[in-house]
Amino acid sequence: MKPCFEYKKPVIKSKTFIVWEPCSKSHSEVVPGYVKYLLDLGYHVSVIVNPQHYKSGLFSRFEDKNLTLNKMSRKEVKEFFRKNNLKDVSGVLVTTSGKLCDSIHYEQCYESFNPEADKSKLFFVEHEVKHSVDAGTWREDIITLRKLNYKEADSVVVNPHYFGEVKLTPKNSDIVNFVTVGAIQGKKKNNDLIINSVKELHEKGIHNFKITVIGKGHLKKLPKELQQYFDIKGRLPFDKMYDEIEKADFLITSYDETKPGHIRYNTTGTSGNFQLVYGFAKPCIIIESFGPINGFDSSNSILYKTDSEFANALQKGIEMSSEKYSELQKNLKAYADKLYENSKENLRKLITTKGGINE
Prior knowledge:
Elements: E1 4-7, E2 16-20, H1 31-40, E3 44-48, H2 51-55, E4 67-71, H3 74-83, E5 91-94, E6 122-124, H4 130-135, E7 143-144, E8 156-157, E9 176-181, H5 191-203, E10 209-214, E11 230-234, H6 238-247, E12 250-252, H7 260-263, H8 272-280, E13 284-287, E14 302-304, H9 310-319, H10 322-354
Parallel strand pairs: 1-4, 2-3, 2-5, 3-4, 5-6, 7-8, 9-10, 9-12, 10-11, 12-13, 13-14
C-alpha cells in the first residue's frame, strides 16, 4: 500500500511518531531510515519534510500502511508545533537539530515547540558535534548517525541506512562502474586524486571502467583523453540516484586525512556516502585511517593507505573476481544488518528512557 499524502497539518493516529526534517535543502536522505526504525517499533509515522523531496522520489522505494507523508508549508509546520501541545503523539524526532539551534545551546530547540509540550517526547539528531563538545554543552541523549570519535564524547547511535526495497546486484562483468556522490567541489572532494588516478590507469592500458559522478557542479579542465571514463550525471532526484547506486559496483570516496573539511567524517560527523554503502551493500574505496570507525575493513571494502595507492585500489576493484566481490558484498550486508539491529535497539531504549510511549 502506497503511503497517503495529507495537507495543512500532520496526520495523527494512535501511537503516532512525527519525523520532522526542518532543513529544506539537505539531510532529508536520513528520513526514510529513521522512519523505518519507528515503523519497526510499532508506531504510525507521520513525516514532515520539504514537499519537493517527495516529488524527487525520497520515498519512491518505500511502502507501508502505517506511513503518512504530509505536505505542509514552512509556515504551517511552524504554526502546528507552536500551537500543539503534542499530548496526542508518542514523540517527535527532529532529524537536524542544527536548524533549530546553534548546535551548542540545545535548549534553543525547545523554543520551536509549544511551551506545554512534554520535552521527554522530543528527540534530536545532530550531524556535527564539534561545537557543543568543545563548548562543554554536548548532551549524550542526542542521536548521532555514528559512534563519535572525538574527546571521548558519547551519543545515542542510530544510523539511518534504509532507503526502501533494494536489489543486491552482482559485479558488472564488462565495464566496472565506480560511483561518487556529492557536490563536485574541492572542499568536500579530492577531485585531483580521482582524475590523476584515472590518468594512471589509462596510461597502464586499463580501460574497462567508468566513474559515475552524481552531484552538482562539473569537473573543469578534464583532459580530453580521460573524458571517456567519466559519466557526469549532475544532481539527480532521489529515485534516479537510487537507480544509479544500484547499478554501480563500488562507491568511491577520496577523503584527505589532512584536510579539516574531511577530518570530520572520521571524528565528529559522518558522510551520507556511508549510508548509501550500507543501504545498497556497495563496497567502498576508502582510505585506511577512515575505515575502522565507519565499519570498513579488508573483508568488506577496498582500503588504501595513502593517496599514492588510490589508483591501485581502483585497479584492485576492476580486476576483482565476481566471487571475491560477492564475498565483500556479503560481509558488508552482514555489518549493515547488525548496525541496523543495534540502532533500532538504541532508539527503543532512548524512547523508553525518556518516557516516550512504546507499548
